[in-house]
Design a protein that fits this description.
By secondary structure, the protein is mostly helical. It has 20 helices and two strands.
Length: 412
Amino acid sequence: MSYPFTNATKRYTIIAVILIYFLFGFISLQTANIHLDEKESHLPTLNSFFHDGILTTVSTPNYKVANTPLPYIIDTIILKIFSIKPSLYSARLLNMAVSFLTVLILTLLLESKALINFFIPVFFFYPYFLKPSFAYFMSIYGLFFFLIFIYFSFRKDKTGFFISGLSLSLAVLCQQFYLIVLVFYFPILFYRRYKQSELRFIWQELLLFILPFVLPGILFLIWGGLTHPSYAAWGAAFSLKNLTGVLAVLGSCLFPFLIYKIRDTNLKILTLFFVLSFLLVFFYFPLWVSAPTPGGISGYTFHVLSIINSYSSLVGFIAKAFLVFLGISSFYIFYKMISEDKSRLLYIIFIILAFGFTLNQLPSERHLLPLIVCAYLLVFSGELKPSVLRIWLLLQVITGASYFYSIMNVNL
Protein backbone atom coordinates (compact mmCIF):
# COMPACT_ATOMS: atom_id res chain seq x y z
CA MET A 1 0.00 0.00 0.00
CA SER A 2 1.50 3.32 -1.04
CA TYR A 3 0.98 6.78 0.42
CA PRO A 4 1.49 10.12 -1.29
CA PHE A 5 4.63 10.89 0.72
CA THR A 6 8.02 12.20 -0.35
CA ASN A 7 10.54 14.61 1.14
CA ALA A 8 8.92 17.32 -0.95
CA THR A 9 5.49 16.37 0.47
CA LYS A 10 6.90 16.62 3.98
CA ARG A 11 8.22 20.11 3.26
CA TYR A 12 4.90 21.16 1.78
CA THR A 13 3.08 19.77 4.83
CA ILE A 14 5.28 21.76 7.22
CA ILE A 15 4.88 24.93 5.13
CA ALA A 16 1.12 24.36 5.06
CA VAL A 17 1.03 24.00 8.86
CA ILE A 18 2.96 27.25 9.34
CA LEU A 19 0.67 29.10 6.93
CA ILE A 20 -2.48 27.75 8.57
CA TYR A 21 -1.19 28.81 12.00
CA PHE A 22 -0.70 32.31 10.63
CA LEU A 23 -4.19 32.28 9.10
CA PHE A 24 -6.02 30.92 12.16
CA GLY A 25 -3.92 33.08 14.46
CA PHE A 26 -4.75 36.19 12.43
CA ILE A 27 -8.47 35.36 12.62
CA SER A 28 -8.23 34.72 16.37
CA LEU A 29 -6.50 38.04 17.07
CA GLN A 30 -8.63 40.08 14.66
CA THR A 31 -11.92 38.63 15.88
CA ALA A 32 -10.84 38.99 19.51
CA ASN A 33 -14.13 37.55 20.66
CA ILE A 34 -13.43 36.93 24.32
CA HIS A 35 -15.04 33.84 25.78
CA LEU A 36 -16.64 33.63 29.18
CA ASP A 37 -13.87 31.44 30.66
CA GLU A 38 -11.19 33.72 29.25
CA LYS A 39 -12.90 36.81 30.63
CA GLU A 40 -13.96 35.50 34.05
CA SER A 41 -11.24 32.97 34.84
CA HIS A 42 -8.07 32.64 32.79
CA LEU A 43 -7.16 36.26 32.02
CA PRO A 44 -7.91 37.54 35.57
CA THR A 45 -5.75 34.75 36.98
CA LEU A 46 -2.91 35.60 34.58
CA ASN A 47 -3.19 39.26 35.57
CA SER A 48 -3.03 38.33 39.24
CA PHE A 49 0.12 36.23 38.70
CA PHE A 50 1.69 39.08 36.72
CA HIS A 51 0.91 41.86 39.22
CA ASP A 52 0.65 40.09 42.61
CA GLY A 53 3.17 37.25 42.31
CA ILE A 54 2.99 33.47 42.38
CA LEU A 55 2.63 32.68 46.09
CA THR A 56 0.05 35.43 46.69
CA THR A 57 -2.15 34.37 43.78
CA VAL A 58 -1.96 30.62 44.44
CA SER A 59 -3.10 31.01 48.06
CA THR A 60 -5.83 33.69 47.71
CA PRO A 61 -9.31 33.97 46.12
CA ASN A 62 -7.65 35.78 43.18
CA TYR A 63 -6.98 32.30 41.84
CA LYS A 64 -10.10 31.93 39.68
CA VAL A 65 -9.57 28.59 37.93
CA ALA A 66 -9.95 24.91 38.82
CA ASN A 67 -6.76 23.74 37.07
CA THR A 68 -3.23 23.90 38.44
CA PRO A 69 -1.12 27.06 37.93
CA LEU A 70 1.90 26.23 35.76
CA PRO A 71 0.50 27.71 32.48
CA TYR A 72 0.02 31.12 34.11
CA ILE A 73 3.47 30.96 35.71
CA ILE A 74 5.11 30.18 32.35
CA ASP A 75 3.18 32.97 30.63
CA THR A 76 3.96 35.45 33.41
CA ILE A 77 7.69 34.74 33.16
CA ILE A 78 7.69 35.18 29.37
CA LEU A 79 5.62 38.37 29.52
CA LYS A 80 7.88 39.87 32.19
CA ILE A 81 11.03 39.00 30.21
CA PHE A 82 9.70 40.91 27.20
CA SER A 83 8.00 43.64 29.32
CA ILE A 84 4.58 42.86 27.84
CA LYS A 85 1.43 43.31 29.89
CA PRO A 86 -1.14 40.50 29.96
CA SER A 87 -3.94 40.89 27.42
CA LEU A 88 -6.18 38.72 25.29
CA TYR A 89 -3.77 39.17 22.39
CA SER A 90 -0.55 38.33 24.23
CA ALA A 91 -2.19 35.37 26.03
CA ARG A 92 -3.53 33.89 22.80
CA LEU A 93 -0.19 34.36 21.06
CA LEU A 94 1.49 32.34 23.82
CA ASN A 95 -1.05 29.54 23.40
CA MET A 96 -0.43 29.51 19.65
CA ALA A 97 3.31 29.10 20.25
CA VAL A 98 2.78 26.19 22.67
CA SER A 99 0.31 24.63 20.21
CA PHE A 100 2.84 24.79 17.37
CA LEU A 101 5.51 23.15 19.55
CA THR A 102 2.99 20.46 20.47
CA VAL A 103 2.48 19.61 16.79
CA LEU A 104 6.25 19.33 16.34
CA ILE A 105 6.51 16.90 19.26
CA LEU A 106 3.69 14.82 17.79
CA THR A 107 5.60 14.42 14.54
CA LEU A 108 8.44 12.88 16.57
CA LEU A 109 6.03 10.41 18.16
CA LEU A 110 4.41 9.35 14.90
CA GLU A 111 5.55 5.83 14.12
CA SER A 112 4.73 5.88 10.40
CA LYS A 113 6.42 8.97 8.98
CA ALA A 114 4.81 8.26 5.62
CA LEU A 115 1.45 9.24 7.13
CA ILE A 116 2.58 12.60 8.47
CA ASN A 117 0.83 14.55 5.69
CA PHE A 118 -2.50 13.05 6.84
CA PHE A 119 -1.81 12.87 10.56
CA ILE A 120 -0.96 16.55 11.11
CA PRO A 121 -4.12 18.04 9.52
CA VAL A 122 -6.39 15.38 11.06
CA PHE A 123 -4.96 16.21 14.47
CA PHE A 124 -4.85 19.97 13.88
CA PHE A 125 -8.52 20.16 12.90
CA TYR A 126 -9.70 18.22 15.94
CA PRO A 127 -12.03 20.87 17.45
CA TYR A 128 -10.72 20.59 21.00
CA PHE A 129 -7.16 21.05 19.80
CA LEU A 130 -8.16 24.15 17.85
CA LYS A 131 -9.91 25.74 20.83
CA PRO A 132 -6.96 25.90 23.28
CA SER A 133 -4.60 26.62 20.39
CA PHE A 134 -6.28 29.88 19.38
CA ALA A 135 -8.19 30.88 22.51
CA TYR A 136 -6.75 31.24 26.01
CA PHE A 137 -7.58 27.82 27.48
CA MET A 138 -5.04 25.79 29.43
CA SER A 139 -5.33 22.22 28.12
CA ILE A 140 -2.69 22.84 25.43
CA TYR A 141 0.00 23.27 28.12
CA GLY A 142 -0.84 19.99 29.83
CA LEU A 143 -0.87 18.20 26.47
CA PHE A 144 2.54 19.67 25.58
CA PHE A 145 4.23 18.27 28.69
CA PHE A 146 2.26 15.02 28.48
CA LEU A 147 3.60 14.33 24.99
CA ILE A 148 7.16 15.00 26.18
CA PHE A 149 6.48 12.43 28.92
CA ILE A 150 5.42 9.87 26.30
CA TYR A 151 8.42 10.63 24.11
CA PHE A 152 10.95 10.06 26.90
CA SER A 153 9.05 7.05 28.27
CA PHE A 154 10.38 5.10 25.31
CA ARG A 155 13.95 5.68 26.51
CA LYS A 156 15.38 3.16 28.97
CA ASP A 157 18.26 5.19 30.44
CA LYS A 158 18.32 7.30 33.62
CA THR A 159 17.96 10.55 31.70
CA GLY A 160 14.81 9.20 30.09
CA PHE A 161 13.38 8.20 33.46
CA PHE A 162 14.02 11.62 34.97
CA ILE A 163 12.77 13.70 32.05
CA SER A 164 9.65 11.56 31.62
CA GLY A 165 8.86 11.93 35.34
CA LEU A 166 9.58 15.65 35.26
CA SER A 167 7.39 16.14 32.19
CA LEU A 168 4.50 14.22 33.72
CA SER A 169 4.78 16.22 36.95
CA LEU A 170 4.71 19.45 34.89
CA ALA A 171 1.62 18.14 33.08
CA VAL A 172 0.00 17.62 36.51
CA LEU A 173 0.95 21.20 37.38
CA CYS A 174 -1.02 22.25 34.28
CA GLN A 175 -4.02 19.95 34.83
CA GLN A 176 -4.64 17.66 37.81
CA PHE A 177 -6.20 15.08 35.48
CA TYR A 178 -2.76 13.73 34.57
CA LEU A 179 -2.31 12.40 38.12
CA ILE A 180 -4.31 9.36 37.02
CA VAL A 181 -1.43 8.49 34.67
CA LEU A 182 1.04 8.48 37.57
CA VAL A 183 -1.22 6.34 39.76
CA PHE A 184 -1.47 3.53 37.20
CA TYR A 185 1.70 4.01 35.14
CA PHE A 186 4.13 3.88 38.07
CA PRO A 187 3.36 0.26 39.12
CA ILE A 188 3.43 -0.77 35.44
CA LEU A 189 6.81 0.90 35.09
CA PHE A 190 8.06 -0.95 38.17
CA TYR A 191 6.88 -4.29 36.76
CA ARG A 192 8.46 -3.67 33.36
CA ARG A 193 11.82 -2.76 34.90
CA TYR A 194 11.63 -5.66 37.37
CA LYS A 195 11.57 -8.06 34.43
CA GLN A 196 14.50 -6.32 32.73
CA SER A 197 16.97 -5.23 35.41
CA GLU A 198 18.43 -5.80 38.87
CA LEU A 199 16.45 -4.53 41.85
CA ARG A 200 19.09 -2.02 42.96
CA PHE A 201 19.01 -0.32 39.55
CA ILE A 202 15.21 -0.33 39.54
CA TRP A 203 14.99 1.77 42.70
CA GLN A 204 17.47 4.30 41.35
CA GLU A 205 15.47 4.71 38.15
CA LEU A 206 12.10 4.85 39.88
CA LEU A 207 13.42 7.44 42.32
CA LEU A 208 14.54 9.60 39.38
CA PHE A 209 11.05 9.27 37.90
CA ILE A 210 9.10 10.05 41.06
CA LEU A 211 11.32 12.81 42.50
CA PRO A 212 9.82 15.67 40.38
CA PHE A 213 6.37 14.99 41.85
CA VAL A 214 7.52 16.80 44.98
CA LEU A 215 6.54 19.98 43.09
CA PRO A 216 2.81 19.25 42.66
CA GLY A 217 2.87 17.65 46.12
CA ILE A 218 3.89 20.97 47.69
CA LEU A 219 1.13 22.78 45.80
CA PHE A 220 -1.52 20.30 46.94
CA LEU A 221 -0.34 20.68 50.54
CA ILE A 222 -0.77 24.46 50.26
CA TRP A 223 -4.28 23.97 48.86
CA GLY A 224 -5.19 21.16 51.24
CA GLY A 225 -6.37 19.10 48.25
CA LEU A 226 -6.05 18.65 44.50
CA THR A 227 -7.79 21.94 43.70
CA HIS A 228 -7.77 25.48 45.03
CA PRO A 229 -10.17 25.70 48.03
CA SER A 230 -12.56 27.79 45.92
CA TYR A 231 -13.04 24.80 43.57
CA ALA A 232 -13.41 21.95 46.04
CA ALA A 233 -16.55 20.80 44.17
CA TRP A 234 -14.37 19.71 41.24
CA GLY A 235 -13.69 16.35 42.84
CA ALA A 236 -13.51 12.78 41.57
CA ALA A 237 -16.14 10.04 41.58
CA PHE A 238 -16.68 7.10 39.23
CA SER A 239 -19.66 7.36 36.88
CA LEU A 240 -20.94 4.92 34.26
CA LYS A 241 -22.43 7.91 32.43
CA ASN A 242 -18.92 9.24 32.01
CA LEU A 243 -17.82 5.86 30.65
CA THR A 244 -20.60 5.95 28.09
CA GLY A 245 -19.58 9.50 27.24
CA VAL A 246 -15.97 8.44 26.62
CA LEU A 247 -17.11 5.64 24.31
CA ALA A 248 -19.42 7.95 22.34
CA VAL A 249 -16.61 10.49 21.81
CA LEU A 250 -14.19 7.79 20.66
CA GLY A 251 -16.81 6.50 18.22
CA SER A 252 -17.31 10.00 16.88
CA CYS A 253 -13.65 11.05 16.62
CA LEU A 254 -12.43 7.78 15.11
CA PHE A 255 -15.50 7.15 12.95
CA PRO A 256 -13.86 6.59 9.50
CA PHE A 257 -11.05 4.47 10.94
CA LEU A 258 -13.38 2.28 13.02
CA ILE A 259 -15.84 1.76 10.17
CA TYR A 260 -12.93 0.56 8.02
CA LYS A 261 -11.42 -1.71 10.69
CA ILE A 262 -14.55 -3.17 12.23
CA ARG A 263 -15.23 -5.42 9.25
CA ASP A 264 -12.31 -7.63 10.34
CA THR A 265 -13.79 -8.24 13.81
CA ASN A 266 -15.47 -11.51 14.74
CA LEU A 267 -19.29 -11.36 14.50
CA LYS A 268 -19.79 -12.86 17.98
CA ILE A 269 -17.58 -10.18 19.50
CA LEU A 270 -19.43 -7.45 17.60
CA THR A 271 -22.75 -8.83 18.85
CA LEU A 272 -21.49 -8.64 22.43
CA PHE A 273 -20.33 -5.05 21.87
CA PHE A 274 -23.71 -4.14 20.37
CA VAL A 275 -25.65 -5.53 23.35
CA LEU A 276 -23.34 -3.73 25.78
CA SER A 277 -23.69 -0.43 23.89
CA PHE A 278 -27.49 -0.75 23.88
CA LEU A 279 -27.56 -1.26 27.66
CA LEU A 280 -25.15 1.61 28.34
CA VAL A 281 -27.12 4.04 26.18
CA PHE A 282 -30.46 2.93 27.59
CA PHE A 283 -29.43 3.23 31.25
CA TYR A 284 -26.33 5.45 31.42
CA PHE A 285 -26.17 7.98 28.61
CA PRO A 286 -25.28 11.51 29.85
CA LEU A 287 -27.42 14.53 28.99
CA TRP A 288 -25.91 17.29 26.92
CA VAL A 289 -25.39 20.47 28.96
CA SER A 290 -23.99 23.82 27.86
CA ALA A 291 -21.68 24.02 30.89
CA PRO A 292 -20.08 21.23 33.01
CA THR A 293 -22.76 19.79 35.31
CA PRO A 294 -22.89 16.56 37.38
CA GLY A 295 -24.79 13.91 35.42
CA GLY A 296 -24.38 15.79 32.14
CA ILE A 297 -21.61 16.42 29.65
CA SER A 298 -20.76 19.41 27.48
CA GLY A 299 -19.29 19.13 23.99
CA TYR A 300 -20.12 19.26 20.31
CA THR A 301 -20.68 15.48 19.90
CA PHE A 302 -23.38 15.48 22.56
CA HIS A 303 -24.85 18.73 21.29
CA VAL A 304 -25.30 17.15 17.83
CA LEU A 305 -26.79 14.00 19.37
CA SER A 306 -29.16 16.16 21.42
CA ILE A 307 -30.32 17.95 18.27
CA ILE A 308 -30.91 14.63 16.49
CA ASN A 309 -32.80 13.33 19.52
CA SER A 310 -35.05 16.42 19.52
CA TYR A 311 -36.27 15.52 16.02
CA SER A 312 -36.57 11.76 16.57
CA SER A 313 -35.88 9.92 19.81
CA LEU A 314 -35.55 6.63 17.90
CA VAL A 315 -32.96 7.98 15.46
CA GLY A 316 -31.22 9.69 18.36
CA PHE A 317 -31.01 6.43 20.30
CA ILE A 318 -29.66 4.56 17.28
CA ALA A 319 -27.01 7.24 16.70
CA LYS A 320 -25.94 7.15 20.36
CA ALA A 321 -25.81 3.34 20.43
CA PHE A 322 -23.83 3.19 17.19
CA LEU A 323 -21.20 5.65 18.43
CA VAL A 324 -20.88 3.83 21.76
CA PHE A 325 -20.65 0.54 19.84
CA LEU A 326 -17.77 1.95 17.78
CA GLY A 327 -16.13 3.32 20.94
CA ILE A 328 -16.19 -0.10 22.61
CA SER A 329 -14.82 -1.66 19.43
CA SER A 330 -11.88 0.75 19.42
CA PHE A 331 -10.39 -0.90 22.52
CA TYR A 332 -10.51 -4.31 20.84
CA ILE A 333 -9.23 -3.03 17.48
CA PHE A 334 -6.30 -1.20 19.09
CA TYR A 335 -5.46 -4.30 21.10
CA LYS A 336 -5.29 -6.36 17.91
CA MET A 337 -3.04 -3.71 16.33
CA ILE A 338 -0.35 -3.84 19.04
CA SER A 339 2.86 -5.01 17.42
CA GLU A 340 5.72 -3.68 19.55
CA ASP A 341 6.64 -1.89 22.79
CA LYS A 342 5.76 1.63 21.62
CA SER A 343 2.21 0.80 20.58
CA ARG A 344 1.80 -1.33 23.74
CA LEU A 345 2.78 1.62 25.95
CA LEU A 346 0.44 3.95 24.06
CA TYR A 347 -2.38 1.43 24.45
CA ILE A 348 -1.80 1.22 28.22
CA ILE A 349 -1.85 5.03 28.51
CA PHE A 350 -4.97 5.11 26.32
CA ILE A 351 -6.80 2.79 28.74
CA ILE A 352 -5.57 4.77 31.78
CA LEU A 353 -6.85 8.06 30.33
CA ALA A 354 -10.20 6.53 29.37
CA PHE A 355 -10.68 5.28 32.92
CA GLY A 356 -9.48 8.58 34.37
CA PHE A 357 -12.23 10.49 32.62
CA THR A 358 -14.89 8.30 34.24
CA LEU A 359 -13.84 9.85 37.58
CA ASN A 360 -14.59 13.43 36.51
CA GLN A 361 -17.53 14.89 38.45
CA LEU A 362 -17.94 17.81 36.03
CA PRO A 363 -17.15 16.24 32.64
CA SER A 364 -16.68 18.04 29.35
CA GLU A 365 -15.75 16.60 25.98
CA ARG A 366 -12.82 19.00 25.67
CA HIS A 367 -11.16 17.31 28.66
CA LEU A 368 -10.68 14.21 26.50
CA LEU A 369 -8.00 15.86 24.35
CA PRO A 370 -5.06 13.70 25.62
CA LEU A 371 -7.13 10.53 25.15
CA ILE A 372 -7.96 11.46 21.56
CA VAL A 373 -4.31 12.28 20.86
CA CYS A 374 -3.27 8.82 22.11
CA ALA A 375 -5.99 7.28 19.93
CA TYR A 376 -4.71 9.16 16.87
CA LEU A 377 -1.15 8.00 17.55
CA LEU A 378 -2.38 4.40 17.76
CA VAL A 379 -4.42 4.76 14.57
CA PHE A 380 -1.51 6.19 12.60
CA SER A 381 0.95 3.57 13.86
CA GLY A 382 -0.50 1.13 11.33
CA GLU A 383 -1.58 1.17 7.70
CA LEU A 384 -4.77 2.69 6.35
CA LYS A 385 -6.23 2.87 2.87
CA PRO A 386 -5.55 6.27 1.28
CA SER A 387 -9.27 6.57 0.45
CA VAL A 388 -10.18 6.21 4.15
CA LEU A 389 -7.58 8.81 5.07
CA ARG A 390 -8.92 11.27 2.49
CA ILE A 391 -12.50 10.85 3.73
CA TRP A 392 -11.38 11.26 7.33
CA LEU A 393 -9.35 14.34 6.50
CA LEU A 394 -12.29 15.93 4.64
CA LEU A 395 -14.70 15.27 7.53
CA GLN A 396 -12.18 16.56 10.07
CA VAL A 397 -11.50 19.76 8.14
CA ILE A 398 -15.24 20.47 7.80
CA THR A 399 -15.89 19.76 11.50
CA GLY A 400 -12.84 21.66 12.74
CA ALA A 401 -13.33 24.69 10.49
CA SER A 402 -17.01 24.93 11.45
CA TYR A 403 -16.18 24.68 15.14
CA PHE A 404 -13.39 27.24 14.83
CA TYR A 405 -15.80 29.66 13.14
CA SER A 406 -18.30 29.18 15.96
CA ILE A 407 -15.80 29.73 18.80
CA MET A 408 -14.46 32.85 17.13
CA ASN A 409 -17.95 34.31 16.69
CA VAL A 410 -20.08 32.88 19.51
CA ASN A 411 -19.46 32.66 23.26
CA LEU A 412 -19.29 28.91 23.89
